[in-house]
Amino acid sequence: xxxxxxxxxxxxxxxxxxxxxxxxxxxxxxxxxxxxxxxxxxxxxxxxxxxxxxxxxxxxxxxxxxxxxxxxxxxxxxxxxxxxxxxxxxxxxxxxxxxxxxxxxxxxxxxxxxxxxxxxxxxxxxxxxxxxxxxxxxxxxxxxxxxxxxxxxxxxxxxxxxxxxxxxxxxxxxxxxxxxxxxxxxxxxxxxxxxxxxxxxxxxxxxxxxxxxxxxxxxxxxxxxx
Length: 226
Ligand SMILES: [Zn+2]
Hints:
Number of helices: 9
Bound molecules: zinc ion
Shape: globular
Number of strands: 8
Largest sheet: 6 strands, parallel
Order of helices and strands: EHHEHHEHEHEEHEHEH
Oligomer: single chain
Structural class: alpha/beta
């Protein structure tokens, strides 16, 4: 379980964006609900902010061109947020729960969806839907050889209506090595792009450098940032 990088040796921070879409939300997407957020991705590109996108397989199926664009842009890396976005424990924010014997297949199905969308090298990192896990879920995940990645800073952008409040919360809690969880799903997190336009310049002013999760994990493995 990875939750943050080194606290010393440099002011780095990893912004992560969960691209949520639940397996049963296809009909809502067909009616026009937007689970993507192309403006957010465009802003990250304009500001040159490296970021890690924890994508569901279902999202990659719904938005293959965007998934491929993110996956082939060296500014970003794609990691796994399950195929179905069903919870790996009971009682997880009202998400449907996946059976234990389907957990491994759900993780692997997401990688299949990424490959089909044209994402060349999705990372072996996994974020549990809703962030919910227990020993059983960790056991199922370890069978896939994928590392669980959580966070130490909650952006609070899910269903937020006040971009400034989201920005303040992130700016209050970021420390060197932090992993910040935000969302790349406009219908469920409509203020994220605006919050980013505040967060990024302010953290840079404080001397922070934005990195992908893989750089933080690499720094922990090698005992410091290079
Ligand atoms: Zn999620």
